[in-house]
Write a structure and sequence with these properties.
- This protein is of the alpha/beta class and 445 residues long.
- The protein has 3 domains: 190 residues, FAD/NAD(P)-binding domain (3-Layer(bba) Sandwich), CATH 3.50.50.60; 100 residues, no CATH class; 87 residues, no CATH class.
- Helices cover 37% and strands 20% of the residues.
- It contains 12 helices and 17 strands.
- The strands form 3 sheets. Strands 1, 2, 8, 9, 10, 16 and 17 form a 7-stranded mixed beta sheet that branches. Strands 6-5-12-13-14-11-15 form a 7-stranded mixed beta sheet, with helices on both faces. The protein has a 3-stranded antiparallel beta sheet with strand order 3-7-4.
- The longest helix is centred in the C-terminal third of the chain and has 31 residues.
- The chain binds flavin-adenine dinucleotide (FAD).
- Flavin-adenine dinucleotide binds next to helix 1, strand 3, strand 11, strand 15 and helix 7.
Length: 445
């Protein structure tokens, strides 16, 4: 974009071209003029390689331009999931057991590129390599009275831009904006990730599951070592409260020495022994929805609003669903001629809360308490969970159901209760006694 175009006013400006911003850009550019500002360089020719698990309950919100049958973007159906610890594994095979797959693995970089290119066919413009540096509160033109002339102003090194509605899709990157604008910030942790190329002819033999959720006390107390498989590469990552430096060192040790994952690397490039810290990527990962994510002339979507589940760090759901509801709602708002005043934006927030938080959030919070907040006991509880999965078909069914059932608003919490009882039954006798109050409290909370 040339400098003469600076200081322009747009009906909508989105900051951030991750999954949430790109989806919003695609939807909104169909019916309004929208400018998307992204700090990264244009990545259309070489999309970044990050593979994500998309649980089937998210399918209803995936933008129509992303076709689940397109293997370029969705390279693997999730047919086998391994839940494991250092001693035990349960290999869930939903396709064999209930004839359902619990989701797909999605190449995020390719999905984002598709959404952005489609958005450019509508009323969308993208400004790359532009770091938004400051966003003051909405400017009121008429002494604090709500008016159609009120706007948000955005400062960048390439100039200032004005908008009637600012969509913050900044993920976990720019929480200073949340704070300046009076929003809360979600809980945030460090994440470290490694990528390995594996030729397509070997990948399914070397890595027999699409997703692995592995808990180990020496790796992290707040998340799994997770592996996700694409067509010719895998991503391994974990989330922690430790510093990035400690995590990088630890990740290299895990990759080089941990027997549980060493079969994955038979045909992998790079080989773990030859890796250095430069081969690892660092991220921040946030979770827990913030209490409010609308204010005058500004809305938050995706991870910026903490729309990432507590237990499993599932953020694709929040990214797709929040951008879907935003578009649906803004179209109606525009047609009605109403302004972007906070009260007028509330229905968007209500839709998101009702349809993707509700019971689902309760379930995720309970899981978090069970699996990440019981201190040392969490790993004993985790082992009992893996044992329960192996022994009880109904436990496995309930887990599958949690992944694919679309009605999150009415997600049956009794399914979790059933699993909780079976976990308790599979605890060692000594822990049954000491953990009884903890389980009772969870059951009745
Ligand atoms: C290692 C890891 C693995 C994960 N695996 C899964 C998974 O398997 N399944 C799942 O459902 N979820 C997963 N998640 C979570 C999920 O990927 C994210 O929650 C989701 O992709 C967030 O999308 P977003 O668009 O909200 O944010 P982001 O993808 O973070 O996008 C934010 C964008 O905003 C841009 N930006 C930020 N600040 C500025 C600024 N000031 N100016 C301009 N641009 C800016 C950034 O460059 C970025 O492009 C994982 C997360 C991590 C870290």
């Amino acid at each position: 974009m040339s400098s003469e175009q600076n200081n322009q006013h747009y009906p909508v400006i989105i900051v951030g071209a991750g999954l949430a911003g790109a989806s919003a850009f695609y939807h909104l550019s169909k019916f309004t003029e929208v400018l998307l500002i992204e700090k990264r360089a244009k990545f259309f020719e070489t999309p970044y390689k990050k593979v994500r698990v998309i649980c089937a309950h998210t399918n209803q919100w995936i933008p129509d331009v992303l076709n689940l049958n397109d293997e370029d973007i969705f390279p693997k159906e999730v047919k086998q999931v391994q839940y494991s610890s250092r001693n035990l594994s349960a290999n869930l095979k939903p396709w064999e057991e209930i004839n359902k797959n619990i989701g797909n693995n999605m190449d995020e970089g390719k999905a984002v590129v598709r959404l952005l290119k489609e958005g450019l066919k509508g009323n969308g413009k993208i400004m790359w390599e532009t770091n938004v540096s400051e966003i003051p509160k909405a400017e009121k033109m008429n002494d604090g009275e709500d008016s159609k002339d009120d706007y948000m102003r955005i400062k960048t090194p390439k100039g200032e831009f004005m908008t009637d509605l600012l969509v913050l899709a900044t993920g976990s990157h720019s929480f200073q904006f949340n704070k300046n604008l009076g929003f809360h910030t979600p809980r945030t942790y460090n994440a470290v990730s490694a990528k390995f190329e594996i030729p397509e002819e070997y990948i399914d033999d070397d890595v027999p599951m699409e997703y692995m959720f592995h808990r180990h006390p020496k790796i992290s107390e707040i998340g799994p070592l997770a592996m996700i498989k694409a067509d010719n590469y895998i991503n391994l990552h974990y989330v922690s409260r430790e510093s990035s430096d400690v995590m990088k060192e630890k990740m290299l040790r895990i990759l080089r020495n941990y027997d549980h994952i060493s079969p994955f690397f038979r045909h992998a490039t790079p080989q773990p022994a030859k890796m250095s810290e430069q081969d690892l990527s660092l991220y921040t990962a946030s979770k827990s929805a913030i209490p409010e994510f609308v204010d005058d002339h500004v809305v938050l979507i995706g991870e910026a609003a903490g729309l990432v589940s507590e237990y499993y760090f599932e953020g694709t759901l929040g990214a797709f669903a929040s951008s879907h509801y935003l578009a649906k709602f803004l179209k109606e708002l525009q047609e009605s001629g109403k302004t972007g005043r906070k009260e007028n934006l509330r229905p968007y927030e209500k839709l998101v809360k009702k349809n993707i938080l509700s019971n689902w959030e309760k379930s995720q919070k309970a899981n978090e308490e069970l699996f990440y907040e019981a201190g040392e006991n969490q790993f004993v509880i985790w082992d009992a969970y893996v044992k329960a999965m192996r022994k009880h078909r109904k436990v496995r069914e309930n887990i599958y159901y949690a992944w694919y059932h679309p009605d999150l608003e009415h997600y049956p919490l009794k399914n979790d209760e059933y699993c909780g009882e079976k976990i308790y039954m599979n605890l060692p006798l000594s822990r049954k006694v000491s953990l009884a109050p903890f389980f009772l409290k969870l059951k009745f909370s």
